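Any chance you could type out a protein's amino acid sequence plus the matching C-alpha cells because I've never seen that pairing?

——
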Amino acid sequence: MACVRSALMALLAAPALAAHCTYPHGECFELRLQKCRGSDQWTIHGLWAEWNNGCSGPEFDESQISSIEDQLKQSWPSCYGESTAEFWGHEWSKHGTCSGLSEAAYFQKALDLKDKYVDSCNGDKGDCSICFSKDFSTQETCPSGTALLV
C-alpha cells in the first residue's frame, strides 16, 4: 500500500505538460533552436507565434535592438547565407509582428527563453523545439516531430 501511495504522490508531484501547442492556429509560442552547420552550439532559429504568420505591424528597425545586438549576434546568427540583420528582419516580419510584443521585447524574450531552456536540448539533431502558452506562463508539448518535452 505504501508503494502505491508513493507512486501516486510521485505522479501528482510531477510537472505535466497538459496543453498541446498546435500549428496552425494554436494559442502558443514555439521557440526553435538550431545548430548551424559545423557548430555544436544551440542558437535561436525563431520564436514563432503559432496562431498566425506575417501580421501587420512596424517594419524591422535594427536600431530598436541595438542594446542587445551583441547578444543577438551570438545567440541568433543566420545559418542560411543571408546576413544576420536580414534574418532578424525576416523573423520579425513573419513571426514577431504576430507576437503582440514590441520588436525589442520580442527579441529579448527569445534570448531569455534560450538562456533558460537551452540546456534541455540535447542529442545530435539539428533543431530543438520548446513550446509555451501564449502568455509564456506554462510549457506545452510542441506540434513538430522534433518537439522537446522538458
